[in-house]
Design brief:
two-stranded antiparallel sheet; 45% strand; elongated; 10 strands; binds zinc ion; mainly beta
C-alpha cells in the first residue's frame, strides 16, 4: 500500500487518542476532534495551535487573538493503545460485530 492511499483508508475515529509521529508537534498526544477523510487531515485537541485574530461581531464582544487547532495530516499521527503506546489498528469480530483492536496486544481500541 502506498503512503498516499492512507488518507482515504483511515481507520481513525473521532475521540481516538493519537500520537504525532512527524511534523512540528512530534511526540505529543491528543484526542481527535474532527476528521476530514477527503483531505486526509484531522484536528487534535490542543495540538498544532495557530493564532487567529477574532473580530468582534457584536458591539459588546471583544476582538483579539484566539488559539485554534490547525489540521494535521492523518499520515503524521498514529493511534495510541493504553498498554503499548503507538500501534496499528487491526480488526476482529466480536459477537459478529467488527471491532477495532490493537495489533500488538489485541486489546479493543
Ligand atoms: Zn496494545
Amino acid at each position: 500500500m502506498k503512503q498516499t492511499q492512507n488518507a482515504t483508508k483511515c481507520k481513525l475515529r473521532k475521540e481516538d487518542t493519537v500520537k504525532v509521529i512527524a511534523g512540528k508537534e512530534v511526540g505529543k498526544t491528543g484526542r481527535i476532534l474532527k476528521i476530514d477523510r477527503v483531505k486526509g487531515r484531522l484536528l487534535v485537541e490542543g495540538l498544532n495551535l495557530v493564532k487567529k485574530a477574532i473580530k468582534p461581531k457584536k458591539q459588546n464582544e471583544k476582538g483579539g487573538i484566539k488559539e485554534i487547532e490547525a489540521p494535521i495530516s492523518i499520515s503524521n499521527v498514529m493511534i495510541m493503545c493504553k498498554k503499548c503506546g503507538i500501534t496499528r489498528i487491526g480488526y476482529t469480530f466480536k459477537n459478529k460485530k467488527k471491532t477495532r483492536i490493537c495489533r500488538k496486544c489485541g486489546d479493543e481500541l
